[in-house]
Amino acid sequence: MLFHFHGGIHPDEHKLESSERPSARAPLPSRLIVPLQQHIGAKTKAIVQAGDKVLKGQMLARADGMVSAAVHAPTSGTVLSVDLHAVPHPSGLPDLCVTIEPDGEERWIEHAPLDYRAMPRAELLAKLQGAGIVGLGGATFPTHVKLSINPAQTVETLVLNGAECEPWITTDDRLMRERAAEIVQGIEILRYLVNPAETLVGIEDNKPQAIAAMRQACTGTDIQIITVPTLYPTGGEKQLIKVLTGKEVPSGVRPLNVGVSCSNVATAYAIHRLVNHGEPMISRLITVTGSVRTPQNFEVLIGTPVEELVKFAGGALPGSNGFILGGPMMGLHVSNGQLPVVKATNCIIVESAQLFPPPPAAMPCIRCTRCVDVCPAELQPQELHWFAKSTNFGKAQEYNLFDCIECGACNYVCPSHIPLVQYFRFAKSEIWAREREKRAADAARERHEFRLLRIEREKQEKAEKLAQKEKAALAAKAAAAVAPATDSAPAAVQPAPAAAESAADGATQSRIQAAIDRAKEQAAASKEKDTDILTPQQLAEMAEIEARRADIREIAHADAKQQQEQQ
Amino acid sequence: MPSSPFITRSTSVSAIMFKVLLALVPGIALYVWFYGPAILVSLALASVTALATEAVMLKLRNRPIKPFLSDNSALLTAWLLALSIPPLAPWWLVVVGTMFAISIAKHLYGGLGSNPFNPAMIGYAVLIISFPLHMTHWLSPLGLGQAEIGFADQLRYIFSGALPPGLTLDAVTMATPLDTLKTQLHMNRPMQEITAMPIYGHLAGHGSEMVAVGFLLGSVYLFANRIITWHQPVAFLGTLFLTAEIFHMVDSGHYATPMFHWFSGAAMLGAFFILTDPITSPTTPKGKLIFAAGAGFLTYIIRVFGGFPDGVAFATLLMNICVPLIDAYTQPKVFGHKAGKK
């Protein structure tokens, strides 16, 4: 029995353009630009330098922290640089990348299959992290984290996501048609890891051949292939779980809390490549479609520049203008063809004005609530839009802005053509920025208060010292007054104070000098901090700190939510 | 730089408003059939006035004129208002009402999407309070009046106030079925005798009941195009029916049947075209039900116990006031927040 999630839309599918050609292996590009951050979580630490020779599959950067995944060389060659390069990210900011010039030999590093059934789970999970396995459904969350189950949790259902609900994208479709048996082997490894009572593979009914191939590959196993209706965004994790199990994953928690573990079919395939072949995640299937000569799927090395990949598909047609990385509903528009494809890249759509005409000018909201009808998160987009527009962010949060998954369905149906998702992204980033500012202000206030306290304490200490000195001096005077007797004594005593004085002077001098040195040092240090030019290391460190803070924030947020719920 | 999503479904505000205008056509056609073409003059007058006022207001507010003038929302306001005004009303009545609706009720509140009150109903309210006498010039259905005047004479009357020699206004107009019922009941005539009068038809007023049927027919088109939902019509007509039924059951000699209330006055127009205006009604399903149910109840009360000939306009405006409150208190649960508080 299938369930429904609220809303959803059915845009033109545009799948046939690319889905009927077999996938091909993309040739080696002229160079590979491998970003060091290709997952959600903490950055990796580069372990190669410019000039290093690397082998195919060799680790370029190791995972740092729990929520992090390693990055590997997609081919053998020479490291040209470890430096900032433009990467596909909504911010448009460059990030650290390892640029490799392939030597064309494709020499593999030593690698071997894993005997996973003889391996403790924790060790297998560490292998996943070391091999850079991340979720290929789009969010690129490190897979080992997703599969780490504490002993108190049991997984009733393992869900494999083969919905592929976004228009134009056909990678999972092709993968399931061509490599169903390998996917099933990957699913078996997942089953070993989470030990589910049932395993469901959800595939939208617009992929009959993929469904047939998967059914065949699953005969004799406990894995069930479930055909789900084609409806965007069925491929959203929480939406697919709702459709297959009827369970509603509560806001702000992971599916594991309701006994469900969900992974993409492409991730299962990647796990199979690692476990049964020893290969880390260095390539993936990518749809190249839209305004190109021969739209089709390619097995592409991570780091291949977008432009070169488009050339492999016969090149862009005249009138093309830019690329969408991902699908037309949630993808990222880029105009720079030098950007590399990353683990998250499932599709490259070459844009043209015919395929993606600019939207008509926005009109005011007429509260028609077509957006409400299609919202899979059951939000009130029209209210959220008012709140975002009037920067009434408190109200936006009250109306659960952060449950928005930015699927774009509201935007798609809006008769006023209001860029609703843009408003929501704006509101979210503003709220994050304000929270950051508030934390910074709180920290500054604390520092200031502490400083005042310290100054006060020092003053007191000084006063006490002074009082003691005076006391001592008085006592000394008194003693001197008591013993003025012998004449020889003063002569012997007199030079002593002078010597002491000069000694004291010397000590003071050196202390002053030391203080000046320290101040100079501090000034130098702080000067460097203030400049805008930061070395990659510093950037990485800062990002790390940020990520750690983000984790803490998340935990705090979750705690607060729980408390709220308990109330 | 553009951001996702990169595709939209090609609907637009003007397409939606246009479909609502289309849905009014069956009602208007039946209006012409039973009362002659005078209503078309009011519709045309109101349309021209609305577009002109809209253009001036947009200019004054420094808004782009073309996209807003072509959104068809001013036309819709004009048509709804014209259909609420007696067709033989003098031309300036239509013009004043439409100008007020567009300039004050719509643009001074921020224009399209920002007006808290239904502009057409504001226009109607202003006219019935300011010019109650002129608002009673309802044409007799063809074949029922003491006398009938041709289209040329109707036009002359609308624009100059002059009737053909020997005719008085009372000869060509009559009170509406709702009004007649109220006055006759005040005169202690029994219900059965009243409804046997020639101005009454099968369900309600002769002629006017068929215009109501026309609006009901038009609503099929609105439903088919998913422009309105069932909430407001069902809640409004349901409450109106129930309230009328209770009173009718208690004293059928003094209170008309629910069917009479459904097919009299602006009930059908209100149910499908006025209360369903998205801008001035709540956005939540529960809110829509509360809003329209309130309007249904108030319509009955104002019709039966109030001083005005019909209650739909005032009931709508009264419920318009409550919309923000209704919305705030009827927010549905969001996905992932439904598990309940433990």
Polypeptide structure, described:
The complex is a heterodimer of chains A (567) and B (342). Chain A folds into 3 domains: 271 residues, NADH-ubiquinone oxidoreductase 51kDa subunit (Rossmann fold, 3-Layer(aba) Sandwich); 51 residues, no CATH class; 106 residues, no CATH class. In chain A, 43% of the residues lie in helices and 16% in strands. Chain A is built from 17 helices and 17 strands. Chain A has a 6-stranded mixed β-sheet, with helices on both faces. In chain A, strands 2-8-7-4 form a 4-stranded antiparallel β-sheet, with no helix packed on it. A 4-stranded parallel β-sheet of chain A has the order 11-10-9-12, sandwiched between helices. Chain A is globular and about 115 Å long. About 1% of the residues of chain A have low confidence. By secondary structure, chain B is mainly alpha-helical. The mean pLDDT of chain B is 90. Chain B folds into 2 domains: 161 residues, no CATH class; 157 residues, no CATH class. The chains are: A alpha/beta (567), B mainly alpha (342). Chains A and B meet through helix 13 and helix 14 of A and helix 1 of B.
Please tag this protein with its features:
heterodimer; A: 567 residues; alpha/beta; 3 domains; 17 helices; 17 strands; B: 342 residues; mainly alpha; 16 helices; globular
Report the strand count of chain B: 0
Total separate domains of chain B? 2
Distance between the termini of chain A: 35 Å
For the biggest β-sheet of chain A, the strand order reads 1-14-13-17-15-16
Name the CATH homologous superfamily of the largest domain in chain A: NADH-ubiquinone oxidoreductase 51kDa subunit
